[in-house]
Amino acid sequence: MNQNEVVIIYTDGASRGNPGPGGYGTILMYKNHRKEISEGFRKTTNNRMELLAVIVGLEVLKRDGLNVVVYSDSKYVVDSVEKKWVFGWLKKRFKDKKNADLWMRFLPLYSKHNVRMVWIKGHSNNIENENCDRLAVDAALGNNLLIDQGYESSVQ
Question: What are 10-23's pLDDT values in tens digits?
Fold first, then answer.
């Protein structure tokens, strides 16, 4: 992959209630390749699903050092990275911060690539964002929902 080649990742998360059943949708695009991924969880939050969608997109990349642009309608996720908040949270060991388990899963993936996070307005007729939303909602409404261990163990 040369410097001009970019992996595009669109992401979205959903929850039916916050907390409630939730899901994420991730679409990866590179040249003429496209991959859609989604999963649903029995009890989680919208922010966790937004972040998990990004994590899963980065986890499926087969090589390190890729140029990646992630499009998300989550200000929480995009601002946490682009405004460098998450790096300050890491220095403080995520004291009093939610979703530390997911952020700690995200950071090593983020550091493997040249990642740029781009916020896009949700429900604004961006076709890939709408596709991710559909994947996330369908996953949240699905059968055989998974357990979000990070969420459910933290609220016990």
Answer: 999 999 999 999 99
For this structure, is 64 an active site residue?
no
Catalytic residue among 13, 22, 40, 57: 13
Within 16-66, residue ranges assigned H as helices are 46-59
Active-site residue 130, yes or no? no
Q: Is the pTM of this model over 0.85?
A: yes
Q: Which are the contacts of 113, defined by CB distance < 8 A and separation ≥ 6?
A: 58, 61, 64, 65, 66, 67, 68
Q: Is 101 a catalytic residue?
A: no
**CA separation for the pair 29, 50 (Å, rounded):** 18
133 is catalytic: yes
Q: Which of 22, 25, 50, 150 is catalytic?
A: 50
Strand, coil or helix: 25: strand
Q: Are 57 and 109 in contact (CB under 8 A)?
A: no
Q: Which helix (H) or strand (E) holds 81?
A: helix 75-82
Which of 39, 128, 133, 148 does the annotation list as catalytic?
Answer: 133
